[in-house]
Amino acid sequence: MTLWEEIIQAPDRIADRYEALWNRERRNPIDEFYLIRTEFNIDKEPAKLLYLLARCVKNAVRFNPSGQFNQSPDKRRTGTLPKTMRSELNAAHLLLRGRSRAVTGDFMTLFEEARTGDFFYLDPPYQGTSEGRDQRYFESVSRERIVAGLSLLNAREIPFVLSYDGSCGNLNYGEPLPPELADRVLLDVGRSSQATLNGRDHVTIESLYISRCLKYAGTSAPQPLAHFSPQLGMFA
């Protein structure tokens, strides 16, 4: 949340620090990444977290059971260019300044405090990636709490959009949520990069749950299957 506070309040300061870290890495990319990662796990500097997010494998956040960032560097690219990052930080600042605040706490408390006009975009760890042997997150959120939270929002008519479960090939990441909670849209997000690296051609499908108190532009309900283009940031 400290990173979001900086983006909302002082984006140029974060942009300057990110640029310094990006330039520092040019001397010895892999070694510097691991050194910056070690430094972040000690000092928790928000600019270092931003650098790690932009530079790590598949931009996928990974923390070990001790809460330390442990994802590796992506050796195929150099991360977001400082000029591009500065532009994106300033765009986020203009969008969020005076309209939002960064808070840390239990999501149920936020649901209970929500007021008319509020909107929630929810992106908890998928059920299938936070249980069993292949745990990719430091802490999970139980399916029961998700259902209870959405029921509370529905009862108060607070709109939400939730990304929660999905599949890749024959592997399912969690069970669908009860249909009475929200409309479920299946998003074709393209070929799995991990499967491609392993020599397989699997398509990833992700579920997007949309509360029924939201108004759908141009249609009475969302389409059951849509294609999402990561490059364009658009649905087709």
CATH fold-level name of the largest domain: Rossmann fold
Q: What is the count of structural domains?
A: 2
Note the beta-strand portion: 15-25%
Number of helices: 8
User: Main sheet?
Assistant: 7 strands, mixed
- By DSSP, the count of extended strands is 7
Q: Please state the overall shape, judged from the principal axes of the Cα atoms.
A: globular
Radius of gyration: 19 Å
Low-confidence stretches: 195-199, 225-236
- Percent range of helical residues: 25-40%
| Structural class category | alpha/beta
Using the coordinates above, name the CATH class of the largest domain.
Answer: Alpha Beta
Rounded mean pLDDT is 81
Task: Explain what you see.
Strands 1, 2, 3, 4, 5, 6 and 7 form a 7-stranded mixed sheet that branches. The longest helix is centred in the N-terminal third of the chain and has 15 residues. The C terminus is likely disordered. This protein has 2 domains: 95 residues, Adenine-specific Methyltransferase, domain 2 (Orthogonal Bundle); 129 residues, Rossmann fold (3-Layer(aba) Sandwich). It is 38% helix and 17% strand. α3 runs antiparallel to α4 and α6 packs parallel to α7. With 236 residues, it is α/β, with parallel strands linked by helices.
